[in-house]
Automatic annotation (TrEMBL):
Primary location recorded for the protein, binned into one broad class: mitochondrion
UniProt keyword terms in alphabetical order: Amino-acid biosynthesis, ATP-binding, Kinase, Mitochondrion, Multifunctional enzyme, NADP, Nucleotide-binding, Oxidoreductase, Proline biosynthesis, Transferase
EC numbers on record: 1.2.1.41, 2.7.2.11
Organism for this UniProt entry: Myotis brandtii (Brandt's bat)
Span of domain Aspartate/glutamate/uridylate kinase: 40-296
Pathway given in the UniProt record: Amino-acid biosynthesis; L-proline biosynthesis; L-glutamate 5-semialdehyde from L-glutamate: step 2/2; Amino-acid biosynthesis; L-proline biosynthesis; L-glutamate 5-semialdehyde from L-glutamate: step 1/2
Compartment list: Mitochondrion matrix
Protein name: Delta-1-pyrroline-5-carboxylate synthase
NCBIfam families: PRK00197.1 (NF001221), proA (TIGR00407)
Single Gene Ontology MF annotation: glutamate 5-kinase activity
Family as reported in the entry's similarity comment: In the C-terminal section; belongs to the gamma-glutamyl phosphate reductase family.
Domain named Aldehyde dehydrogenase: residues: 376-539
Superkingdom field: Eukaryota
A GO cellular component annotation in the UniProt record: mitochondrial matrix
Length: 709
């Protein structure tokens, strides 16, 4: 999903698969690589650096054969393939050099009468002559290669006039369509034997001039209503300066119209184009509705499959992200199935929560938090504002989608959502319902769905378009997102390794009831109990026996911590790790000697999510509450209360285990930030200097109880 529809900006990533949401007569450009497999008509542009050898004299035959093989595979799949190829000049240069050397050697032998030949100088060869000598040989080579795959090829040489003259343009269009109809691959090239030098800035308004094969490929793609244009070059992507320079940096995101931020180098070692020409041609083709991929076609590790990989949707080149994918689900674990289900009770709770959000959101944005009279007629206000565009990656629970969407809407934020693949169908339906509701108010695109992991990776680079990423899942997921995010803040919702410490002064009835609710009420939830810490004095007491009996009745599998196992003759399976989120009817039990040891254990093995003490000693409880450094710390209450709905927030975008901005269940308030508004009357700082006429007052003013912005 592209945040460009939320903010009216278009974007690229580092190796260009470029698409923009522009309409065209033959349909819309593909919005994500996974859709490229549906491309029917494809233009492949082969740059000079791709088809020529490193010595710039002759063709890279192995590379060319591989490209022909890939094009043939796609053609035989029923696609309509067209080639725009360079190489005539290089091939002609090779032939002419050979002829000149042969001619010079014969003349020298005749004049000297000797077999020894002097060192011969090769004159500078004119490009048009090289093109004339090379075009027939290049075409003969293509014909021989395509014949191996039972495919016929046809050559078409064009100049700029063939596009500007209406009759010639119609003739060219008709010829190409007829060749495609007969399953022939057109091989198109500029007629370099007669083409005049390109004039600078010669583009007509709305029309790109054919100055090189990059512009030819773009013009041809649009004229023929092509689905996809693949531009193969010899570099990895777009750099902020020439790729060979020491400080050249690969640009993760490029904004069309911001070409001034890039220092383009000279054209490639051969040919007439260069990256600047490719960028310009790509943008023009996009405006015509053709999707564009720019990729490296000369690297030996990828050139053998780069074209077919692109069409199969693999990550070659780069992408703007918008797609809907189908997932096939096999046998799933019971906890996952429980998270995936949308039961009546879940839907009822969801509806109540959404109404709570609606009721609390009337003055959430623009609410005055603080008013200060800085000086006479100089008043300062701190008001709430949206954060901007949010990217929320959540687990398999589909009910998260409407909850997070409601919070984003209520806080005025744009939203990109990535749900678990197992819930793809439910998420898609819920997203459609969300957009139907938003369309009533004309903001349908404010909430959009991301469906692949690849899309998330690309979105994490868009630091100028996404303001906050909220991953909900394992600590590994949070780490991966933090690593992938390029300059975007990440509000971590890590795993829920929740602890409950049963103190030596705990109530028997309370302890058993709290353990049951925390572990068994919904074991798949992130706020379910995972580790039970028991004070050593409680072992072999009625309280301990009651807890163990209850867990057996509830069919909870017990894993013994190292200290607990040492007290038992026949112990349950010893825990593999004290830092485990089971998400099922499994529980780790460990023994501690004191409340301080319990706190130390929580800090070492917990996830800073939710931790509980069960005790009747208020002093011990307060010590625990003040010293456990977690987002939620409870006394004689179930871990399951750690929830935005139960806190009265309506819902939550996640439970933040971070320490900055928001912590614990993140509701509406956590998705807002603030700005300062200062209203004065020609106030300047110099008036408040030692010899100035004004004095600071800094008086706190009453804040309005309710205001609507």
């Amino acid at each position: 999903v592209q945040p460009s529809t939320i903010r009216n900006v278009r974007s690229w990533s580092n190796i260009p698969f470029i698409t923009v949401p522009l309409s065209r007569a033959h349909g819309k450009s593909f919005a994500h690589r996974s859709e490229l497999k549906h491309a029917k008509r494809i233009v492949v542009k082969l740059g000079s650096a791709v088809v020529t050898r490193g010595d710039e004299c002759g063709l890279a035959l192995g590379r060319l054969a591989s490209i022909v093989e890939q094009v043939s595979v796609l053609q035989n799949q029923g696609r309509e393939m067209m080639l725009v190829t360079s190489g005539a000049v290089a091939f002609g240069k090779q032939r002419l050099r050979h002829e000149i050397l042969l001619s010079q050697s014969v003349r020298q032998a005749l004049h000297s009468g000797q077999n020894q030949l002097k060192e011969m100088a090769i004159p500078v060869l004119e490009a048009r002559a090289c093109a004339a000598a090379g075009q027939s040989g290049l075409m003969a080579l293509y014909e021989a290669m395509f014949t191996q795959y039972s495919i016929c090829a046809a050559q078409i040489l064009v100049t700029n006039l063939d596009f500007h003259d209406e009759q010639k343009r119609r003739n060219l269009n008709g010829t190409l369509h007829e060749l495609l109809r007969m399953n022939i691959v057109p091989i198109v090239n500029t007629n370099d034997a007669v083409v005049p030098p390109a004039e600078p800035n010669s583009d007509l308004q709305g029309v790109i001039s054919v100055k090189d094969n990059d512009s030819l490929a773009a013009r041809l793609a649009v004229e023929m209503k092509t689905d996809l244009l693949i531009v193969l070059s010899d570099v990895e992507g777009l750099f902020d300066s020439p790729p060979g320079s020491d400080d050249a940096k690969l640009i993760d995101t490029f904004y069309p119209g911001d070409q001034q931020s890039v220092t383009f180098g000279t054209k490639s070692r051969v040919g007439m184009g260069g990256m600047e020409a490719k960028v310009k041609a790509a943008l023009w083709a996009l405006q015509g509705g053709t999707s564009v991929v720019i990729a490296n076609g000369s690297h030996p590790k990828v050139s053998g499959h780069v074209i077919t990989d692109i069409v199969e949707g693999k990550k070659v080149g780069l992408t703007r992200n918008l797609t809907v994918t189908s997932w096939f689900i096999g046998r799933l674990a019971p906890p996952l199935l429980k998270r995936l289900s949308l039961s009546t009770s879940k839907l009822n709770s969801l509806a109540i929560g959404l109404r709570q959000i609606a009721a609390s959101s009337q003055d959430s944005v623009g609410r005055v938090l603080r008013r200060i009279r800085v000086a006479k007629n100089l008043e300062l206000e701190q008001v709430t504002v949206p954060i901007g565009v949010l990217l929320v990656i959540f687990e398999s629970r589909p009910d998260c989608l409407p909850q997070v969407a409601a919070l984003a809407i209520a806080s005025g934020n744009g939203l990109l959502l990535k749900g678990g693949k197992e819930a793809a169908h439910s998420n898609r339906i819920l997203h459609v319902l969300t957009q139907e509701a938003l369309s009533i108010h004309g903001v349908k695109e404010a909430v959009q769905l991301v469906n692949t992991r690849e899309e998330v990776e690309d979105l994490c680079r868009l630091d100028k378009m996404i303001d906050l990423i909220i991953p909900r899942g394992s600590s590994q997921l949070v780490r991966d997102i933090q690593k992938a995010a390029k300059g975007i803040p990440v509000m971590g919702h890590s795993e829920g390794i929740c602890h409950m410490y049963v103190d030596s002064e705990a109530s028997v009835d309370k302890a058993s009831r709290l353990v049951r609710d925390s572990k068994c009420e919904y074991p798949a939830a992130c706020n379910a109990l995972e580790t039970l810490l028991i004070h050593r004095d409680l072992l072999r007491t009625p309280l301990f026996d009651q807890i163990i009996d209850m867990l057996r009745v509830e069919q909870v599998k017990i894993h013994a911590g190292p200290k607990f196992a040492s007290y038992l003759t026949f112990s349950p399976s010893e825990v593999k790790s004290l830092r485990t989120e089971y998400g099922d009817l499994e529980l780790c039990i460990e023994v501690v000697d004191s409340v301080q040891e319990a706190i130390d254990h929580i800090h070492k093995y917990g996830s800073s999510h939710t931790d509980v003490i069960v005790t009747e000693n208020e002093k011990t409880a307060e010590f625990f509450l003040q010293h456990v450094d977690s987002a939620c710390v409870f006394w004689n209450a179930s871990t399951r209360f750690s929830d935005g709905y139960r806190f009265g927030l309506g819902a939550e975008v996640g439970i933040s285990t971070s320490r900055i901005h928001a912590r614990g269940p993140v509701g509406l308030e956590g998705l807002l930030t603030t700005k300062w508004l200062l209203r004065g009357q020609d106030h300047v700082v110099s008036d408040f200097s030692e010899h100035g006429t004004l004095k600071y007052l800094h008086e706190n003013l009453p804040v309005p109880q309710s205001n609507t912005n």
